[in-house]
């Protein structure tokens, strides 16, 4: 870890001491936004009881946050180029902290939902530009390790949310889940204002019509997933899906003509980038699906309590924390596609072993399987993120960062919706884990397809950066 903050002659990015503070600001901001996605799920029954609402209505405390966050990722990534990424990150953090205080004090579902929507806006502002900030903070020679750290925070945050939520709820009531963000957010806010790189805003207009189309496209897509996951009538989720497709078509047409598009078409002209995006989305489908499916498997079929279930998830984030940094460092030296493909293979084996888990299996039998999944995901995500960011032109780093965050969120939420749809159809929970295996197979195919391209790009990069003899 110390090598990330060493400064050598000729390094781009921030100097070592400033780099350390800036990274700490990004880590705290990312963890708060990502952990919140899965941590609140364990508190939904308590929220429904205390606010005297149905469980179906309480689910919107989680859903609204994810829908708003996902719908504005691309918008904020583009908007940051006008006002600067530092200003947007600080504003997003401030909004998230204020909304967290409001959510902790809310005593009605309606007020809580308002603050959850504001939290989602704040989270979108920080998550949309996080990876591109890593590219500005760290020198090019450490980019793989830096993006490995970023992927580690995101994946670890998603995976550790249930365990952290279970721990807090074992000693306090649900408002403390929101209050927990306040001191961490204030620290991150001060660090971000002091240490993030200052940069001028871009001169030129903002694609407002494209932004509206992006919000409608992504927002209606997530509403379709929510309706599908909760066994709503077919006309309801099909209607939202149709609206998403129409808005998506108009959005893509707009991007080809806009002077400052939210999603520059030439970003996807690089096959390495497109294949890395595909692999990332499919892998997050598998992980998002597994988190929800295992909750039902552990509690309904194996008889574990919610707190015990939270601890059974622990090997997943621990394995990511152990393997992720190693994978990021190694991706700077060897073909990242080889590492990412190996990680996907391990994730596939882990999900398949969980799908074969018997209801009377021992705790140890479950722990090694979730650990295998975590090892696979930790080995996959940092090299794959490196591929996504380095294959994009530097001037499109912010747009690539928005695509990375949106892909992750869409994949995670699609996995959750698939579990809901299968359970609504009375399918066994193990069947959903097999769907996760299919997603991993498709991700592995995409990762293997870009292997020769990534190898050639790495050889070219070494020849360009090697000193003359």
Automatic annotation (TrEMBL):
Keyword Translocase in record: no
Cross-referenced CDD domains: MFS_MMR_MDR_like
Topological relation to the membrane, as annotated: Multi-pass membrane protein
Record keywords, A-Z: Membrane, Transmembrane, Transmembrane helix, Transport
TM regions (residue ranges): 21-44, 56-76, 88-106, 112-134, 146-168, 174-196, 208-228, 234-252, 273-298, 310-331, 338-357, 431-453
GO cellular component, one term: membrane
Residue ranges annotated for the Major facilitator superfamily (MFS) profile domain, each copy included: 22-455
Annotated localization: Membrane
InterPro entries cross-referenced by the UniProt entry: MFS, MFS_dom, MFS_trans_sf
Transmembrane recorded as keyword: yes
Annotated GO MF terms: transmembrane transporter activity
PANTHER family: MAJOR FACILITATOR SUPERFAMILY MULTIDRUG TRANSPORTER MFSC
Name of the protein in its database record: Multidrug resistance protein stp
Name of the gene: stp
């Amino acid at each position: 870890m110390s090598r990330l903050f060493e400064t050598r002659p000729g390094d781009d990015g921030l100097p070592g001491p400033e780099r350390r503070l800036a990274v700490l600001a990004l880590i705290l901001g990312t963890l708060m936004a990502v952990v919140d996605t899965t941590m609140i799920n364990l508190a939904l029954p308590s929220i429904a009881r205390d606010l005297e609402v149905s469980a179906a209505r309480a689910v919107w405390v989680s859903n609204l946050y994810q829908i708003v966050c996902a719908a504005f990722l691309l918008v904020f990534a583009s908007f940051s180029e006008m006002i600067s990424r530092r200003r947007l990150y600080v504003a997003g953090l401030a909004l998230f902290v204020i909304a967290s205080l409001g959510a902790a004090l809310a005593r009605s579902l309606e007020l809580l939902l308002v603050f959850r929507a504001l939290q989602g806006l704040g989270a979108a502002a920080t998550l949309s530009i996080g990876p591109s900030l890593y590219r500005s903070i760290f020198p090019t020679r450490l980019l793989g390790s830096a993006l490995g750290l970023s992927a580690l925070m995101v994946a670890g945050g998603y995976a550790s949310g249930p365990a952290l939520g279970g721990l807090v709820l074992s000693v306090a009531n649900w408002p403390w889940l929101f209050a927990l963000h306040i001191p961490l957010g204030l620290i991150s806010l001060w660090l971000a204002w002091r240490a993030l790189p200052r940069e001028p805003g871009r001169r030129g207009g903002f694609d407002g019509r494209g932004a509206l189309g992006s919000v409608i496209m992504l927002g209606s897509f997530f509403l379709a997933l929510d309706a599908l996951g909760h066994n709503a009538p077919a006309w309801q989720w099909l209607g939202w899906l149709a609206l998403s497709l129409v808005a998506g078509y108009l959005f893509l047409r707009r991007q080809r003509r806009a002077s400052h598009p939210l999603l520059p078409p030439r970003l996807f002209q690089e096959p390495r980038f497109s294949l890395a995006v595909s692999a990332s989305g499919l892998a997050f489908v598998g992980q998002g699906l597994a988190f929800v499916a295992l909750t039902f498997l552990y509690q309904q079929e194996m008889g574990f309590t919610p707190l015990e279930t939270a601890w059974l998830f622990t090997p997943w984030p621990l394995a990511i924390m152990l393997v992720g940094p190693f994978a990021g460092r190694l991706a700077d030296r060897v073909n990242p596609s080889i590492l990412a493909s190996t990680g996907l293979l391990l994730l596939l084996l882990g999900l398949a072993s969980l799908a074969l888990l018997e209801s009377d299996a021992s705790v140890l039998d479950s722990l090694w399987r979730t650990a295998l999944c975590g090892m696979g995901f930790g080995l996959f995500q940092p090299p794959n993120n490196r591929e996504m960011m380095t294959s994009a032109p530097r001037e499109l780093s912010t747009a690539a960062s928005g695509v990375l965050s949106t892909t992750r969120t869409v994949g995670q939420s699609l996995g959750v919706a698939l579990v809901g749809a299968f359970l609504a159809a009375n399918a066994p929970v193990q069947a959903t884990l097999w769907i996760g295996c299919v997603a991993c197979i498709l991700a592995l195919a995409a990762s293997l397809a870009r292997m020769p391209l990534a190898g050639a790009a790495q050889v070219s990069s070494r020849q360009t950066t090697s000193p003359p003899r």
